[in-house]
């Protein structure tokens, strides 16, 4: 059975960096899924897309709000997907969810809280 587990939770200060790791069990990030991705949901707001990477690692996608600051990557050997977050801002505060896209459904982690505060 496919399961996704995010690292965290974490509390960091503005301008600092943080790496979130999604550990996947029951499937391969290269052969089982079309994409791996990260979403987030801030308090009182809807869940939004953050970043994604294709199964081959050849294509990455980012929301405009994080482009240039966040980097998504996959480690085939460890079967993990990582979101490297730099120059964090208070508005990055949210629950972050790992996502694995496949047929006939998507798989989600339970979410992890990231708080950016001085």
Keyphrases for this structure?
118 residues, seven-stranded mixed β-sheet, four-stranded antiparallel β-sheet, single chain
Estimate the helix proportion, in percent. under 10%
Gyration radius over CA: 13 Å
Quickly give the structural class.
mainly beta
Q: What's the multimeric state? A: single chain
Gross morphology is globular
Strand content: over 45%
Structure notes:
The protein has strands at residues 3-6, 10-12, 18-25, 35-41, 48-54, 60-62, 70-75, 80-85, 94-101, 106-108, 112-116. Strand 7 and strand 8 (80-85) form a beta hairpin. The model has no long low-confidence stretch (mean pLDDT 95). It is mainly β and 118 residues long. The strands form two sheets. Strands 2, 4, 5, 6, 9, 10 and 11 form a seven-stranded mixed sheet that branches.
Task: Give a short synopsis of this structure.
This protein is mainly beta and 118 residues long.
What's the arrangement of secondary structure elements?
Elements: E1 3-6, E2 10-12, E3 18-25, E4 35-41, E5 48-54, E6 60-62, E7 70-75, E8 80-85, E9 94-101, E10 106-108, E11 112-116
